[in-house]
Amino acid sequence: MLKVSRRQRSLTVALPGSLTRDIPHLREKTARIGLIGRSLAIFKVSRAIIYRDEPSQKGIVEAALLEKILRFQETPQYLRRHLFKLEPDLQFTGTLPPLRIPSHPNRADASPGQIREAVVISSGSASKADAGYGQPVTIRASLAMKRRITVRINRTRPTLEGELVEANGLRIYWGFRVNREDVSLAELVKKKDQDLTISTSRKGKDIRDTMEEFKPRWKSSQHPLLLFGSPDKGVPELLTESGTRVEDAADFNLNMIPEQGVETVRTEEALMASLAVLNILDKEDA
């Protein structure tokens, strides 16, 4: 199994629900979301929160699609048939690039100590879960049907047995979680679940000019939140619509792509570039 250490800090990114609104065809929408998912996994993001930037019915539909496809991509392939129905929104998910993260193993042989994602398929005083082995894993606990769990194999003969483990407690990167919240960006920031809020904006300060101030704040943070704007509105504009100034909502408003060579940078491009910059700072911790 691929073993990749998790980040020293739990990084959350805030994405607009209308991220694919400017794309007319579902195939291209799926492709863009696939790039988002790859970026989240490459840079070991812990959580993606989808916020409401467009309250219309179309905006709600777009946000639901983003959530659904990101969840699908993050789910190990052997569990998808349990957790997702065959529906039109997922018809092009076969084109999604695989994540190939530790929670997406490509081997089906079981061994003691192995950790797998699983889904409960039988419930009782002892439950059984599908962990992609061809035979169920018995867990000596009563668990809800269809519940997604993380298990550690502790016996392979005569039958597979395992125990529950907390994915957040693993030392290896175990993928990202996706949450969609019916709140504006300003409302999301005000929840204060984070200890450092970073706005990404072309109108922000050049990251190179703020590094002396920003680097120690980044290194001391444990739960940073990274904000991204919509296809046609930046973070400052979205906050202003809710009567909030970016200076009041974010600790830093940064231009992560200074001297860009194109007129506009798409959200998926800004995400990749911003996470790459932060990844360099993480490497300096090592």
The proportion of residues forming helix, as a percent range, comes to 25-40%
Widest β-sheet, arrangement of strands? 8-2-1-10-9-11
Low-pLDDT regions: none
Class of secondary structure makeup: alpha/beta
Task: Walk me through the structure.
By secondary structure, this protein is α/β, with parallel strands linked by helices. Helices cover 31% and strands 21% of the residues. The protein is built from eight helices and eleven strands. The protein has helices spanning 26-42, 57-74, 80-83, 185-190, 207-220, 235-241, 246-249, 267-285, and strands at residues 12-16, 47-51, 115-122, 127-130, 137-139, 148-155, 161-164, 177-180, 196-206, 224-227, 252-255. A six-stranded parallel beta sheet has the order 8-2-1-10-9-11. It has a five-stranded mixed β-barrel with strand order 3-4-5-7-6. Helix 1 (26-42) links the parallel strand 1 and strand 2 (47-51). Helix 1 (26-42) packs across helix 2 and helix 1 (26-42) runs parallel beside helix 8. It is globular, with a radius of gyration of 20 Å.
Q: What characteristics describe this protein?
A:
286 residues; 31% helix; six-stranded parallel sheet; five-stranded mixed β-barrel; alpha/beta; globular
Secondary-structure map:
Blueprint: E1 12-16, H1 26-42, E2 47-51, H2 57-74, H3 80-83, E3 115-122, E4 127-130, E5 137-139, E6 148-155, E7 161-164, E8 177-180, H4 185-190, E9 196-206, H5 207-220, E10 224-227, H6 235-241, H7 246-249, E11 252-255, H8 267-285
Parallel strand pairs: 1-2, 1-10, 2-8, 5-7, 9-10, 9-11
Antiparallel strand pairs: 3-4, 3-6, 4-5, 6-7
Helix pairs in contact: 1-2, 1-8
